[in-house]
């Protein structure tokens, strides 16, 4: 199912996770669902009037089965660079494996058996780097390479799994799903302090917040 949150920003409801399409300087896919979401994601893109071949870039908030799963299946029509934080980009490109010494890393390694590594250009991004109208913010904790993206021009924040939504509020990523919850808390506070204001908060799990998103994030930052 595809829902247009604001003009040019679409939410795709997949198997327990959200992906997004943003009409930035080029059509930008944000995260990519599970390996079993290809049909639903393609249908959502059709609803938004964008062909897979029209996508100009992919912004990944992080490497997890439910955020990178369809990338390989969208090729060869998808011919666009994939941007991700260094640690997670290395896992996606099969240059490193998740560490079994961390509970989340061990789970990622097991879940990774269901992930086909895409034969696409995977570009590591740095904290503060600009991609289109978005600025990348390194927000480790859920994963070491987790990145949030904020566009002051569009008023949109792409928060991935740093937080989730419940009854209109944001909650920090919990222990079971995170590498380090201390890093999660620090990343939430840092992002709230450093980013430009945004109205729409696009999150991986839950209902996107369409007004006062940065204020809702600031409320969480004050509480943790």
Structural class: alpha/beta
Q: How do the strands line up in the largest sheet?
A: 1-2-3-4-5-6-7
Helicity level: 25-40%
Percentage of residues in DSSP E strands: 25-35%
CATH class assignment: Alpha Beta
Main β-sheet description: 7 strands, mixed
Tally of DSSP β-strands: 14
State the helix count.
7
Which ranges are low-confidence, i.e. pLDDT below 50, for 5 or more consecutive residues?
none
How far do the termini sit from each other? 33 Å
Number of domains: 1
What best-fitting shape do the alpha-carbon axes yield?
A: globular
Descriptive account of the structure:
The protein is an alpha/beta fold and 224 residues long. The protein has one domain: Ribonuclease Z/Hydroxyacylglutathione hydrolase-like (Metallo-beta-lactamase, Chain A). Helix content is 26%, strand content 27%. The protein has helices spanning 38-47, 65-68, 71-74, 86-92, 103-111, 181-194, 213-223, and strands spanning 2-6, 9-13, 18-23, 27-30, 57-59, 82-85, 122-125, 130-131, 134-138, 147-151, 156-160, 163-166, 169-172, 200-203. It has a 7-stranded mixed beta sheet. Strands 8-9-10-11-14 form a 5-stranded mixed beta sheet, with no helix packed on it. It has a two-stranded antiparallel ribbon with strand order 12-13.
Concise account of the structure shown:
The protein is an alpha/beta fold and 224 residues long.
Give descriptors for this structure.
224 residues; 7-stranded mixed β-sheet; single chain; 27% strand; globular; Metallo-beta-lactamase, Chain A
């Amino acid at each position: 199912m595809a829902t247009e949150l604001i003009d040019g920003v679409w939410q795709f409801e997949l198997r327990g996770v959200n992906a997004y399409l943003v009409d930035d300087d080029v059509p930008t896919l944000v995260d990519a669902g599970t390996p079993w979401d290809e049909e639903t994601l393609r249908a959502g893109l059709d609803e938004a009037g964008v062909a897979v071949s029209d996508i100009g870039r992919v912004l990944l908030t992080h490497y997890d089965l439910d955020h990178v799963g369809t990338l390989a299946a969208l090729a060869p029509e998808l011919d666009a660079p994939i941007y991700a934080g260094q640690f997670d980009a290395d896992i996606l490109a099969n240059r490193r494996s998740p560490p079994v010494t961390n509970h989340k890393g061990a789970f990622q390694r097991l879940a990774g058996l269901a992930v086909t590594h895409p034969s696409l250009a995977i570009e590591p991004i740095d904290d503060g780097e600009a991609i289109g109208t978005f600025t990348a913010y390194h927000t480790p904790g859920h994963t070491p390479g987790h990145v949030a993206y904020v566009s002051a021009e569009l008023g949109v924040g792409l928060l991935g799994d740093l937080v989730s939504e419940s009854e209109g509020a944001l909650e920090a990523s919990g222990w079971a799903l995170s590498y380090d919850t201390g890093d999660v808390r620090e990343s939430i506070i840092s992002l709230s302090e450093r980013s430009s204001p945004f109205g729409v908060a696009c999150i991986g799990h839950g209902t996107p917040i369409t007004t006062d998103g940065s204020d809702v994030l600031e409320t969480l930052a004050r509480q943790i």
